[in-house]
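Predict both folds.
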Amino acid sequence: MFTGIIEEVGQVVAFVQTKTAWSLQIAAKLVTQDVALGDSLAVDGCCLTVTRFDSRHLGFDVLEETRRLTVFNELKAGSLVNLERSLKAESRMGGHFVSGHIDGLGRVEIFEPRGSDHYLRITAPAGLGRYLVHKGSIAVDGISLTVAEVAGDSFAVWLIPHTLAATNLREKKTGGGVNLEFDLLAKYVEKLLTLRSN
């Protein structure tokens, strides 16, 4: 479980296919300090298991399915990725509950400065707009954000300068992909209402 509050932006050192899985190596400083084998770490919002590490690097095995269905299919050496360690029971809850299980790949529609802030509009996969609520929460590349506008399967968020400085969103371009995880509450409510109506 995560909160969507990014701790560090890491850099992809290598992302290559091996006989058993895709091997992802990321350079990082902060999140490597107390890491252990088997720890869960959110990489661009996707929960991955640490399979190797040293004081400056983290290694993960990535399934082909994960690579295909997420923004990982666009990763290459030098790409910046958002990193967050899993939530500790005694931690402050600054964002919202984020599971690290990506619901779909969104596409950047508009990304532009407006005054001192930035406006970001994203198109979600068809049909997933049903989980979007004005002023609700969404995780974009693992970042907990507040939905400012909803129109069908697209939505917009506003970004303060700190969010751009502390995450990889500063690299995003129109047409680029982003990992989306919709609020857990919306998915549970839908499931319960479906069961109730049946």
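Second protein follows, with its predicted structure tokens after the sequence.
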Amino acid sequence: MISSDWCRLMAAYNSEMNRRIYAAAAEIPDEARKRDAGAFFGSLHGTLSHLLWADRLWMSRLAGWERPSVGIPGSASLIADFAELRAARVEADRGIEAWADSLTAEWLAGELVWLSRATQREHRAKRWILVGHLFNHQTHHRGQAHCLLTQHGVTPADTDLPFVLDLTALGLA
């Protein structure tokens, strides 16, 4: 099972990687960010939008956040304006970090039951597995965004977890 410290680490890493990805994405003209590049969610903008959508969806289940107003087919176009998308990302990352700071081993060991609109059925899983999925999903799509950035000739900042976070400040060193 994962620990609350691991969750805090992943939340901090998620925030930092999003800052780096969005900084790199800001170097690309809006039209190019939104051009379909053959990624699963089309464009770089669509990928970043889907990632915010998914974080909000999982946090609605895990922490009672407001559920996104669109389903997965609309996730790539959740927020059309890049500046607004970036601001929403920052807000979500702050919320995920605050939530991660509150997690306990007991909460992680519990179960979550939810109704998926995508599958139209009820699901049940240990919370720690779902939290692991939340962070893994973020990494998966940020990897796609990283690839799309490099295709535009932009090199994002380093991504190596042990070297991009101040582990001492997080109380994890």
